[in-house]
Amino acid sequence: MISWPAGYGCRVLDEVDSTLDEARRIADTLSGPEWIMAHRQTRARGRRGRAWIAPEGNLSATLILRPGGGPEKAAQRSFVGALAVHDAVVAVTGRAEGLACKWPNDVLLNGGKLAGILLESFGAGADVSYLAIGIGVNLREAPPADAVEEGALRPVSLLSETGADVDPETFLTALAAAYDHYETHFVTYGFDPIRAAWLQRAAKLGQPITARTGTSEFTGTFQSIDEAGNLVLMTPRGQVILPAADIYF
Ligand SMILES: O=C(O)CCCC[C@@H]1SC[C@@H]2NC(=O)N[C@@H]21
User: Using one digit for the tens of pLDDT, what is the confidence trace for 99-146?
Assistant: First the structure.
């Protein structure tokens, strides 16, 4: 039996525009980190301004917290979030086979996209006042393959790939517990153990991948992620380090 982690609040909404927007609305009223889950989102968003399709029965949730520190440290929490999703899936299914983390912050199952994470920070000053970690997991239903852009990995659901029918509330409890575990490690020991744990679960490590930024495309061997979380790619023209890109296999 997984228990809810101490110190984290939680609210469950029937419907909202986006849990990320709800996080912005309530941020100033909170006294600690808070999970916001919604059964339906009417305007869910994914990375790079894409729409996120999440039929009811999937997990749509945002964790809002006050991270302390600058933008680089805040961004490293995308790896904390990805590890938490990975381990929550293991916790609810009892198996890790076929699970992998895709840089920067997707979780794959049997080679398809099971979950996506979108980080948004807001507030005044050099430090990040608030960090919202939006997490979508295809628990019951994957969006149709033609709803994702060309070249993107096929979406998969936990139900179709494993037969496990896990409801969003149950998954959120496992996710919140796993997140708390990795957050404690991150705050206590820094990014090193997070980086090591993420690399152990990384998809296509040591293999050829293509990285597309808004302006360039690089194909090479996925060598590692560096101490900041940047992608390290060895291309025929030398090493390339990328802070942001879309990855294609
Ligand atoms: O593009 C991605 O892979 C990131 C998807 C993030 C989706 C989640 S669902 C909960 C939260 N609310 C949103 O509007 N988006 C995130």
Answer: 999 999 999 999 999 999 999 998 766 677 999 999 999 999 998 878
Closest ligand 1 atom, residue 113 Cα:
3
ipTM associated with this complex: 0.99
Pairing verdict, β 34-41 and 9-16 = parallel
Q: Are residues 36 and 123 in the same domain?
A: yes
Residues 145 and 215 occupy one common structural domain:
no
Cα–Cα distance for residue pair 227/241, rounded to 1 Å: 11
- Based on the structure, what is the number of domains in the chain? 2
Give me the CATH number covering residue 129: 3.30.930.10
At 95, phi and psi to the nearest 5?
Answer: -145, 145
Phi, psi of 214, deg, nearest 5: -60, -25
Q: Does 4 map to a domain?
A: no
Q: Is the pLDDT of residue 166 over 70?
A: yes
Pocket of ligand 1 (CB under 6 A): 18-20, 41, 44-47, 50, 52, 54, 60-62, 106, 116-118, 134-136
CA angle 23/133/18 to nearest 5° reads 45
Q: Is residue 225 one of the residues assigned to a domain?
A: yes
